[in-house]
Amino acid sequence: DVKVTQSSRYLVKRTGEKVFLECVQDMDHENMFWYRQDPGLGLRLIYFSYDVKMKEKGDIPEGYSVSREKKERFSLILESASTNQTSMYLCASNGGATDTQYFGPGTRLTVL
Amino acid sequence: AQKVTQAQTEISVVEKEDVTLDCVYETRDTTYYLFWYKQPPSGELVFLIRRNSFDEQNEISGRYSWNFQKSTSSFNFTITASQVVDSAVYFCALSEAASGTYKYIFGTGTRLKVLA
Question: Which residues contact B30 (CB under 8 A, 6 or more apart)?
Fold first, then answer.
């Protein structure tokens, strides 16, 4: 079974704080993804990575950065959190470009 | 342009009713993949099914069935004899082979409420 884990289910931060969201997958997948989910907007891709140290911007990368130092781990960084980044963040991974993406449990982030 | 439309924002049914969730997609690719995911209240997206554009055969898995029709660009999902545990948000997604961008295009989801 594919297992994607995320470091926190719920997180509360203050405006201006630096926030790290961690994602780990155990299936040796090449590709990893960060999405945010907002009501009425579905899932929107923030960044993805197709290899260690490689990353590409998704649809809404502004205000975010990512890091992939090891194949199994993909981090999403909010350099200076803002209230409009309050959202559900979902991590996913897959083994090939059009392969099925498997998702983690999500992190519900609230920025006060 | 690629697009996935789930026109039903929310559906409520009584337990044991059948319910169909609609998904209409747009793509210029001839090779593409369609997916359905379930998101229960716990938040995790659970993979349900993947179809490729060359396989229009309908699929049945227990109480779940999927109807893929290229002629109408639709990939609808039917739950037979719904149960309270089916209550969730359901997402349809499209992935295009030629784009090479690894990107899924998600619909906005349909919230299904099954009432006891």
Answer: B53
Chain B residues with a Cβ under 8 Å from any Cβ in chain A: 9, 33, 35, 37, 42-47, 50, 91, 95-97, 100-104, 106-109
Partners of A77 in the β-ladder = A20, A65
User: Which residues on B lie below 8 Å from A100 (Cβ)?
Assistant: 35, 47, 50
Q: What is the DSSP letter of A85?
A: G
Question: Which residues of chain A have a CB within 8 Å of the CB of B5?
Answer: none
Burial A56-84 (b: 16+ CB within 10 A, else e): eebeeeeebebbbeeebebbbebeebeee
What CA–CA distances, in Å, run from B27 to A13, A20, B5?
A: 40, 35, 12
Query: Which amino acid, B39?
Result: Q
Rounded Cα gap, residues A104 and B3, in angstroms: 24
Predicted confidence (pLDDT) per residue in A83-112, tens digit? 999 999 999 999 877 788 999 999 999 999
pLDDT at B100: 62
**Quick one: CA dihedral B49, B53, B54, B59, positive or negative?**
positive
Q: Which residues contact A52 (CB under 8 A, 6 or more apart)?
A: A68, A69, A70, A71
pLDDT digits (tens, 9 = 90+) for B49-61: 999 999 888 888 8
pLDDT tens, position by position, A37-76: 998 888 999 999 998 989 999 999 999 999 999 999 999 9
**In which element (H, E) is residue A83 found?**
none
**Rounded Cα–Cα distance for residues A109 and A83 (Å):** 10
